Structure formats: structure tokens, C-alpha cells
Amino acid sequence: MFAHTMVKDAVAGVAIADKSEDLNTFLQPACAAAIWRRQPAPAFQTRIDTLDPLLLPQGRIILRPEAVPLAVNALCDTAQTPACA
Predict the structure, then answer these.
(1) Are residues 58 and 83 in the same domain?
(2) Could you say which DSSP state residue 6 is in?
(3) 23-27, long-range: CB within 8 Å, 24+ apart, which pairs?
(4) Collapsing DSSP states into helix, strand and coil, what is residue 2?
(5) Concatenated DSSP letters of 24-73
(6) CA angle, 70 as apex, 31 and 43 as ends, to 5°?
(7) Do 32 and 58 fall within a single domain?
(8) Distance CA 77, CA 69 (A)
(9) Burial of 24 by CB count in 10 Å (0-12 exposed, 13-18 middle, 19+ buried)?
(10) For the segment 7-29, what is each residue's pLDDT rounded down to a tens digit?
(11) pTM, to two decimals
């Protein structure tokens, strides 16, 4: 079962997940949203910390999961984010 976490100023009906398997709480009728607190891979975090913030992509898009990689690549291309693994 999902362990609810208290978050300062969190809205009722918003669940917090620390593991991917906890995201199934989003399927409950009383859950309006779920926040997944993922820990980025160390190599990714190092890379992102060294980039000029002006080169980071921005966007708010609602997508099906299979469309995410293409959308992220397009946002990075638009922001002229340097290519990397």
C-alpha cells in the first residue's frame, strides 16, 4: 500500500511517491495527482549542474509515455542544449 508523506503546503488529493510502484495510488478516485520524487542518476546530476541554465529546456506538455523521448529531444533542440548521453 502507498505510504502517504506529509509535504508542506501540499494539496489534498495529491500523493507523494518515492518508488515507481507507489505511483499506482494515482489510480485511486480520491487522488487528483501524484508526485514522484525520483533521485537522478549521479552522472545526470553532475551534467545538469554544469549546464548554463539558459540552455536547459522548458515546456509543459501532456503526453502519452511513448511520446516523451521525442518531446524531450525537441525541447532540448529548441533550447540548444548541448548533446550528451
Answers:
(1) yes
(2) -
(3) none
(4) coil
(5) GGGGSTT--EEEE-PPPPHHHHHHHHHS-GGGS--------GGGHHHHHH
(6) 80
(7) no
(8) 12
(9) middle
(10) 555 567 888 888 888 888 878 88
(11) 0.54
